[in-house]
Amino acid sequence: MTKNQTLRASLTSGKLFTAMAAHNPLAAKLAEEAGFGGIWGSGFELSASYAVPDANILSMGTHLEMMRAIAGTVDVPLIADIDTGFGNAVNVHYVVPLYEAAGASAIVMEDKTFPKDTSLRADGRQELVRIEEFQGKVAAAVAARKDRSFTVIARVEALIAGLGHEEAWARGLAYEEAGADAVLIHSKQPTPDEILAFIDGWKGRVPLVLVPTAYPQLTEADIAALGKVGIVIYGNHAIRAAAGAMRQVFARIRADGGIRDVDRTLPAVKDIIRLQGDEHMRRVEASFLK
């Protein structure tokens, strides 16, 4: 079974699929080792790793090449975050085959204007395109894929924009009609009430996707019990974990005036070398170096 088929089979099985964010291949490998079903190729995380806002500052090429590197490192499906699709429906039609060829098993595209603003930014610009315009982008993505198992996920930002449930439901159903295989519904409320109300009123046939960053109270068991959610994405926990750990270690080195005490709290260098693929390199050396 291919990675594309693995993700599609999970969506049709009714079993909850889990995806952890990654901003580079090392983070993706660690997520795979931890047992996540797939990788979220996060635009937010990649932007943060470059220390720039998640507002279409980085080029599509930068994101695409990182997705290629991640997909080539792990054996689980990669869900690529392509923001607003890097333009209109014509752009989307050209972009999707590039991500598919790079090894992504799915794309998530959101219905904001370009350039976007990150969803959880306080007082951010949360402007949406017309429903009909985004239907065209979804249809363009579906028509452009080479493998029918490649998954197209439409992201509804109506709740983020404060437009309410009726607008969110209307958009989700319209995007399903345009061919989306799943609908991601996003919320920035600190409790799950807004999301739970959306799920309760969802009349669509395709599964929903959740990103519970703002409402971490919902467990995977809670989400699975809802019966309408196919994927849960942990959208930014790799970069937050990395930033927190580096900040703590760097501060301790400065406070201690050296690395004597902090060193034993860190992964051994040999563990990092293992993660770099040392075992495979040794096999190659044994086979080909004469």
Low-confidence stretches: none
Query: How many DSSP helices?
Result: 12
Rg over C-alpha atoms, rounded to the nearest angstrom: 20 Å
What structural class do helix, strand and pairing data support? alpha/beta
Mean pLDDT: 96
Main sheet strand line-up:
1-2-3-4-5-6-7-8
The end-to-end distance, rounded to whole angstroms, is 37 Å
Percent strand equals: 5-15%
Fraction of residues in helices? 40-55%
Give, in order, the helices and strands. Answer: HEHEHHEHEHEHEHEHEHHH
> Which word captures the global form?
globular
How many β-strand runs?
8
**Largest sheet entry:** 8 strands, parallel, barrel
Summarize the topology.
Blueprint (H helix, E strand, L loop, with lengths): L2 H11 L3 E6 L2 H10 L3 E4 L1 H7 L10 H12 L6 E4 L7 H13 L4 E5 L20 H14 L6 E6 L7 H14 L4 E4 L7 H9 L6 E3 L9 H6 L3 E6 L2 H20 L12 H7 L2 H11 L2
Parallel strand pairs: 1-2, 1-8, 2-3, 3-4, 4-5, 5-6, 6-7, 7-8
Helix pairs in contact: 2-4, 5-6, 6-7
Family: Belongs to the isocitrate lyase/PEP mutase superfamily. PEP mutase family.
InterPro entries: ICL/PEPM, PPH, Pyrv/PenolPyrv_kinase-like_dom, Pyrv_kinase-like_dom_sf
Pfam family, one: PEP_mutase
Structure notes:
It comes from Pseudorhodoferax aquiterrae. Pfam families: PEP_mutase. Belongs to the isocitrate lyase/PEP mutase superfamily. PEP mutase family. This is Phosphoenolpyruvate phosphomutase. InterPro entries: ICL/PEPM, PPH, Pyrv/PenolPyrv_kinase-like_dom, Pyrv_kinase-like_dom_sf. This protein has 290 residues and is an alpha/beta fold. Helices cover 46% and strands 13% of the residues. The chain has twelve helices and eight strands. It has an eight-stranded parallel β-barrel, surrounded by nine helices. Helix 2 links the parallel strand 1 (17-22) and strand 2 (38-41). Helix 2 (25-34) crosses helix 4. The longest helix is centred in the C-terminal third of the chain and has 20 residues, at 237-256. The chain is globular. The model has no long low-confidence stretch (mean pLDDT 96).
